[in-house]
Amino acid sequence: MMHHPIALGWQLLESGNIAAAEAAVRPLLLHGMRDELVPLIGAIRIRQERWSEAVPLLERARAMHPREARFAYLHGAALAGMGKLALAVSAYHAAIKHEPDVAAAYLALGDAQRRLGHFQDAQNTFRKLLRIHPGNVQGYLILSAVLAEAGDLAAAEVPLQQALLHTKDAKVQSVICNNLAVSLDWQSRHDEALENLNRVQALAPNWPDIDNRRIGILYKLGRFDDCLVLYRKLLDRYPSDAQIHHDYNSLLYRLGRMEAYLTSYDRAPPTRELMLGKADFLMMEKRGTEAQTVYRKLLARDGLDMAAAAGLAGSLMLTERYAESATAYEAVASRPGADAAIFSGAAEAAMMAGDAQKAEFFCQAGLRHTPYDQMCLALLGISWRLQDDAQDEVLNGYDSLVRSFDLAPPHGFSSMEDFNAELGAYLECQHPKTRAYLEQSLHGGTQTEGFLFGTGHRLIQTLKVRIDEAVGRFIADLPPDAHHPFLARRSRTFRYAGAWSSLMRNQGFHRNHLHPQGWISSCYYVAVPEVAKDPHAKQGWIKFGEPAVPVALRNAVRRTIQPVPGRLVLFPSYMWHGTVPFHEAAVRTTIAFDVVPQ
After folding, report:
1. Cβ(153)–Cβ(455) under 8 Å?
2. What confidence tens digit (pLDDT) does each residue in 175-205 have?
3. Strands of the sheet with 542-544, listed across from one edge
C-alpha cells in the first residue's frame, strides 16, 4: 500500500508539481517518517529550498542505500544549498562513483568546485563530463565560464565555439553568441565581437542591454560618432536612465565635445537620480558653486536626502568653505546609515578646517564601519602626520612596505629591452584616441579599457608569469601582524582585482591618488622617457606620501622611485602616490594592477 503514493509523489515532483507531490504523501506521514518516505521527503524539501531539513533526511537515505547514486546526488544538492560546498563535493563524488555517466552529477560537482574557487578542479570535472557526453551544451557553457573566471579569457572561447556545433536552438545559440562576444571583446578582437553581438540581436531581438554592449565595442573600434548616435537613441527611449546619461556625458567629455556636454541632463526630467548624476560631473570638474545649486534644490525637496547633504558638504569644501563643510559633514555623519565614504569626507573637511584630531576620529569611525576602507586608512595616516604621530610610519611603512623588483626577461626573450619594445608597441595600439576619464588620475595621458590580464595576448601572459612570481615573493616576505590593516590581510593566495595600462605623453603625470578597491597596488614600467634618468630632477618618477588633500605637511613626499623599463613597484593600495611631470617628446607606458587576498 505504501508504494503507490510514493511512486506518484516522485512522478509529481519530477514534473515540477511540488505541492501535489507533498499532498500525495502527506497521509502517509501520519504514521511517522517511515524509511520508504525519507528520500522523497528529502527531495521535496530540496525543491522547497528547505535545505536544513533536507540534509538529515538525505543522510539517512544514504545510510540505508549506500550505493544509490541518486540519494548521494540529492544529499550534495542539499549541502550545497546550505553553503557547505566542501561536503557537497564529497557527496557528488560518491554519486559519480556509483553512476559515472550521469551528467547532472558532473554539472553539480563542477558548480560546487567553481563556487569554492577551485577552478582547476572544476575544469577537470567539466572536461570529464564532455568526454562522456560530448554533446552536452551546458557543460561547454559552464566550462567556458570557469575558464573566464580563472582569468583565461582566450581559452574560454574554445568551449563556446564547440557548443555552437551541438545546438540548433535559437535561444541557446543567442546565449552562446553573447558569451562569445564577451570573450572576443576581452581579447581585443572587437570586429568579431561585434559580429557575434549582431547575431545575438538577430536570434533574440529583445536581448537586454544590447545597445549598451554595442556602444562599448564601437568605442574600442574608435567609432565614436556611432557611439554618440546610439546613446542619443537610448536617451530618447529612456530619458530618465541615469546610467545612460552618465556614460553619454562621460564620452562627450573624453571627446572634447563640450558644447553638448551635460546638456542631456537639462533636457531630461529633473529626477533626483539625474540631478545627482549632473552634480557628480560638476564635482569632478571642481565646479563647486554650480554643484551647490543642484544639491540645495534636492534638499529643498527632501531635507533628509543623505546623498544631497553629503554632496553639499563636499561642494562647500571645493569652494574653500572648510568650516561650513566640516559642520555639514558632521551633521550627515551623525545620522543612521552614514557609510565610510561620508566619514572619509568628514575627515578631509576636518583636516582642511585645521582639526586633525577630529579628522582622526572620523577615520576611525569609518574603519569601524568598513575595516579596510582604503580612503579612511589613507586619511588616517595624514591625520597622524599632522599631529606628528609616528603611527603614520607604522601604517604606511614607506621604506618597508614599498618594494621594487627588476624582473627577469620572460621566457623566449633574451633581454627586457627587446621584450618591452614589443610590449610597448602592442600596448600603444590598445589605448583609446580620447582623453582620460574625469574619474581617473591621469593628466596628459590615457588608460586602456577593461581587464588587461587574461586577454590571451602572449606578451601580457608571459609578463604575468613574472608578475605572479614577484607578487608571491612580496607577500611571502610580509611579516604577520593581525593588528596592522595591510599585514593582517596577508594570504598565500591572491587574485587580480583590476589590470590596465597607462600611457602619458609630454608634460603628463598622475595626480596624487590611491586605489580604493585594492590591497596591493603596483606599477610596471614598459617605456620611460630619457629625462627620467636624471636623479635630481626626478621627472616621471613615482612619489609616495604626498596626499591629494592640500594640507601643509613637512616633507610631504616620503619616498620616490626611479622608473626603469622592466621594474615593478608594489605598495599598499591605501598609500598616496602620484608622479612627477616629465618634459620630453616621448611616452611613459606602464602596466598597473590591484591585488586582493583570495
Report:
1. yes
2. 999 999 999 998 889 999 999 999 999 999 9
3. 559-561, 542-544, 577-579
Contacting residues for 426 by C-beta, under 8 A, at least 6 apart:
457, 459
Residue pair 264/249 in contact (Cβ under 8 Å)? The answer is yes
Q: What single-letter amino acid sits at 596?
A: V
> Looking at residue 389, what is its pLDDT?
97
Asked if 519 contacts 573 with a C-beta cutoff of 8 angstroms, the reply is yes
Would you tell me how many other CB atoms lie within 10 Å of the CB of residue 450? 16
End-to-end CA distance of the chain: 55
Beta bridge partners of 589: 503, 527
Question: CA-to-CA distance for 398 and 14, rounded, in angstroms?
Answer: 63
Q: What is the DSSP string of 17-67?
A: -HHHHHHHHHHHHTT---GGGHHHHHHHHHHTT-HHHHHHHHHHHHHH-TT
| Backbone angles phi and psi of 593, in degrees to 5 | -155, 160
Helical H segments across 259-321, by residue range? 263-267, 272-284, 288-301, 306-318
Note the pTM of the prediction, 2 decimals.
0.85
C-alpha cell at 102: 550521469
Cross-strand pairs, 68: none
DSSP state of 372: T
What is the number of alpha carbons within 13 Å of residue 8 lying toward its C-beta? Answer: 14
Where do we find the cell 615573493?
A: 473
Q: At what angle do helices 137-149 and 153-164 cross, to 10 degrees?
A: 170
